[in-house]
UniProtKB/TrEMBL annotation:
GO terms for molecular function: protein-L-isoaspartate (D-aspartate) O-methyltransferase activity. GO terms for biological process: methylation. Belongs to the methyltransferase superfamily. L-isoaspartyl/D-aspartyl protein methyltransferase family. The lineage of its organism: Bacteria, Pseudomonadati, Bacteroidota, Cytophagia, Cytophagales. The active site is at residue 65. It catalyses: [protein]-L-isoaspartate + S-adenosyl-L-methionine = [protein]-L-isoaspartate alpha-methyl ester + S-adenosyl-L-homocysteine. This is Protein-L-isoaspartate O-methyltransferase.
């Protein structure tokens, strides 16, 4: 069940070269994607799709993100090995596994109870030790704040103030913001207690961020 063969590793190397051609430059991020066996986050019947650079449905109306998107968001975080990271939207656990290659302190929150339970079991089986929670990710984890970095893996109508308040000064939030069809990737850096600097990047399409500070069901 947990086989990671020479063929799989070769497919990952090919995928990483494709991501490099598409503009991903952070070698630590590329190494992380080369390390994590993405096929193990798929049902066995669909594992042949794992090393194509595309998103794929994982049930419950959710997807495992396109590898380019995972690499792009992770690169924007500028992660350091000492960073405490909050991920909003655990999903399949793939992005979380990539983050864990870069820093050991990853907190991740998933809105959907069914996905949370299956992903919690999967990450435990792979001996990946993130701090996992089930709840409203749009509200963050105030009891565990502040965080050095916050990554949102679902599209939000706005930048939630709840998340900004949970950033450490000098920390950064990466989040896709827009309507339900397309979102613009944003990075918000907390310069001081009351000052935030926002940058805008490429357009993407994510599943909606559900919750009190996101899209209402």
């Amino acid at each position: 069940m947990h086989a990671d063969t020479y063929r799989h590793r070769g497919l990952r190397r090919t995928l990483v070269e494709e991501l490099r051609r598409k503009g991903i430059r952070d070698e630590r991020v590329l190494t992380a994607l080369a390390t994590v066996p993405r096929h193990l986050f798929f049902e066995p019947a669909f594992q042949q799709h794992a090393y194509q650079d595309k998103a794929f449905p994982i049930g419950q109306g959710q997807t495992i993100s396109q590898p380019y998107t995972v690499a792009y968001q992770t690169e924007l975080l500028h992660l350091r090995p000492t960073d405490r990271v909050l991920e909003i939207g655990t999903g399949s656990g793939y992005q979380c596994a990539v983050l864990l290659q870069l820093t050991p302190e990853v907190f991740s929150i998933e809105y959907n109870q069914v996905l949370f339970e299956s992903t919690r079991r999967r990450l435990a089986a792979f001996n990946l030790r993130a701090h996992l929670y089930c709840g409203d990710g749009s509200m963050g984890l105030p009891a565990q704040a502040p965080f050095d970095k916050i990554l949102v893996t679902a599209g939000s109508p706005t930048i939630p103030r709840t998340l900004l308040r949970q950033l450490r000064v000098g920390g950064a939030l990466v989040i896709p913001v827009g309507d339900e069809n397309t979102q613009r990737m944003m990075r918000v850096v907390r310069e001081s207690e009351d000052e935030f600097v926002r940058e805008e990047f490429e357009e993407f399409r994510f599943v909606p961020l559900l919750g009190q500070a996101g899209w209402q069901k």
